[in-house]
Amino acid sequence: AQTVTQSQPEMSVQEAETVTLSCTYDTSESDYYLFWYKQPPSRQMILVIRQEAYKQQNATENRFSVNFQKAAKSFSLKISDSQLGDAAMYFCAYRRVGAGSYQLTFGKGTKLSVIP
Amino acid sequence: DGGITQSPKYLFRKEGQNVTLSCEQNLNHDAMYWYRQDPGQGLRLIYYSQIVNDFQKGDIAEGYSVSREKKESFPLTVTSAQKNPTAFYLCASSFSSSTDTQYFGPGTRLTVL
Questions:
Q1: Which is it for the CA torsion B29, B33, B34, B35, positive or negative?
Q2: pLDDT tens, residue by residue, B39-98
Q3: Cβ contacts of A97 on chain B, cutoff 8 Å
Q4: Is the dihedral of CA A63, A79, B97, A53 positive or negative?
Q5: Which residue of A has its CA nearest to B58?
Q6: Is A99 in contact with B98 (Cβ distance < 8 A)?
Q7: How many angstroms away from the CA of B15 is the closest CA of chain A?
Q8: A 4-63 near B (Cβ less than 8 A)
Q9: How far is residue B81's CA from residue B85's CA, in Å, rounded to a whole number?
């Protein structure tokens, strides 16, 4: 079974600084997707970024980028120029590709605080 | 406005009662999902449906039931058989392909009194 591990329960960053959230996963599949979701205090899950495992290039979305290391099964999220609105729980998630592969497997989350 | 709506936002239930959580989407998505979130935990899949009139159990389906009579709607019933139903429930949807991203509704907080 696939597992997703987020080893940092809580992190903090100064406004305008950069922070990296860690995620590792365990799978025997060669093709899969990885996601970072943000859950602000409103509790709605918002997609931050998505990475296809077959792509070498790391995904980026504005101030958010990932460092995807397939061999190491590592998928970290870097937030640049942190803003107060970035304060939230961040969840890493895995999804394999193929028939019936609709399930997302989530890590337990990292709570990010942004210090003004 | 396209999106996923869940109602109610807060729900209280007495022990022994069944309760139904609503999830509606107007994104024309084929697949819909129900997740449960407990404090300090990630989301866990309860049920999912790929098409109308079809659904499959997820990791924690015991004590829950669903129906998918319409493409837009995927209600979740929390039955009295669910031993610890107090949690935050999130509904999601996606297009049918396994490559498609899941988008989430705002959630329902269920509390058993």
A1: negative
A2: 888 899 999 999 999 999 999 999 999 999 999 999 999 998 888 899 999 999 998 766
A3: 98-99
A4: positive
A5: A103
A6: yes
A7: 25
A8: 4, 33, 35, 37, 42-47, 50, 52
A9: 9
Chain B residues within 8 A of A93 when measuring between CB atoms: 42
A50 within 8 A of A72, measured Cβ to Cβ: no
* Phi-psi region at B39: left, alpha or beta (left = phi > 0; alpha = psi -120 to 50): beta
Coil, strand, or helix at residue A86?
helix
pLDDT 10s digits, A60-93: 999 999 999 999 999 999 999 999 999 999 999 9
For B83, phi and psi rounded to 5 degrees? -70, -30
Categorise residue A86: left if φ over 0, alpha if ψ from -120 to 50, beta otherwise: alpha
Beta-carbon count within 10 A of A12 CB: 13
User: Which tokens belong to A56?
Assistant: 């070498």
State pLDDT tens for residues B4-35.
Answer: 999 999 999 888 899 999 999 999 999 999 99
pLDDT in tens, A27-65: 998 889 999 999 999 888 999 999 999 888 899 999 999
Q: Give yes or no for a contact between A91 and A36, defined as CB atoms under 8 angstroms apart.
A: yes
How far apart are the CA of B40 and the nearest CA of chain A, in angstroms?
6
